[in-house]
Amino acid sequence: MNLSLDPTRCQGYGLCAEAFTAIELDEFGYAVQRRLPLADADLDAARAAVAACPNSALRIEK
Amino acid sequence: MLTAQLDSAPALLRRVEAAGLRGRGGAGFPLARKLRAVRDAGLAAGLAPVTVANGEEGEPGSVKDKYLLRQRPHEVLDGLTLAARMVGAGHAYVYVSDPVSAAAVTAAVRSRTDPLGIEVIEVEHAYVAGEESAVVRRIDGGPALPTAKPPRPFERGVGGAPTLVSNVETLARLAALARGERTDRLLLTVSGAGLLPRLYEVPEGMALGELVRVHLGDTRPRGLMLRGLMLGGLAGGIHTPAILPAPLSFDSLAAAGAALGCGAIHLIGPDQCPVAVVRDALSYLAEQSARQCGVCVTGTSRLAATMTKAAQGVATAADLDALERWAVMLPGRGACGLLDAAARLAGSLTVSFPGALAAHMAGPCAGPCAGCTQARGSIAVPVVPRTAEKVPT
Q1: Residue B362's pLDDT band (boundaries 50, 70, 90)?
Q2: Any CB–CB contact under 8 A between B302 and chain A?
Q3: Structural domains of chain B sorted by starting position, each given as residue range(s) with its CATH number in brackets
Q4: What is the ipTM of this complex?
Q5: Is B298–A10 a contact, with Cβ atoms under 8 angstroms apart?
Q6: How many residue contacts between A and B have a Cβ separation below 8 Å?
Q7: Please, is B175 exposed, middle or buried when counting C-beta atoms within 10 Å of its C-beta (0-12, 13-18, 19+)?
Q8: B333 touches chain A (CB under 8 A)
Q9: Contact B206, B216 (CB under 8 A)
């Protein structure tokens, strides 16, 4: 499974990176990874990141 | 009009593959692979694909697509018809922003008796309006703005159907191939250096310097009259005359760290400052950002603002470091290629003209360069000619 980012929606709130530390933010505050492979152990944190984004920029895809 | 009516679609597809025909919209993607992907996606989904002739030449320094649509619309429509047959499409569009092109191609469509329904879609010109996902979005009734990928149009495009979005020159080459003509010809727009812009048709593989020599119209040693060049449109970066021996082909220019792109070549004359030229291009790209991706809004505006400081001679060492850092950090981050173009331009300046940037630490250019101290210059848009000049003649 992957965590995928829609860059047209990312506005750099940065809440995702607080929920899931594997998400990197660049120096402007935008999420860097377009597609982040997820291990089973990451799923809860990834779901929390998806829920945390005020602009629904993240999505978990199979 | 079509001599290839007797050639079956699979046979023509094999010929496209053998000819190595690549897309002329900028990316140089192999046409055979794209045709096959759309055809197969249509079969898998049980949907008739859609084909689009993309004539929305977003690149300000390129006129080849407008020239083809205005002067040779039937070649584009022949190619569109062939492509539609090869992917099994039931409906086709010509997507265009130039009003003269739209009128010419509309008249051409009316004069034909193709069984294929061809609709001309007009869009307002913008740098990103010709990006393939923006094309699909606009034809579906939305704004001409890129969307996040996947899905790409070949998977899900117009009306949800697999869609072939193909540049109009690519389609004209496809029609030429079907007629048994050579396809290893390139349409190139050469502008800049205070000379009249011209459109050329050259054999692929000819040295870039040979074309530049013809354009400059003298026999002086190559490079003497030039300070640099922007190749492949704004997305291809800025280069020194050291690039001139490179052959004009997708692979050779890529190997030389440049790009053929859509074939727009902008010359920088001896009295022009590369820092000011890049500043103007970055300002244009920042203005043309679709303002969807946050990273593009911030990235292009920071690049343009920092390059403006550099041109004015007030950039700090930290600013120049930031330009190099952003050039690496920003590509691949946006939904379309605009941010990549801006990052690549800034990065190519730091690589090709490190001395020019360093010299601006002490202030704007002295001497013949007038560009540095201006607030900013404009991006020249060449007039569309009636003919393409063949080189060598």
Answers
A1: confident
A2: yes
A3: 9-178 (3.40.50.11540), 185-393 (3.10.20.600)
A4: 0.96
A5: no
A6: 42
A7: buried
A8: yes
A9: no
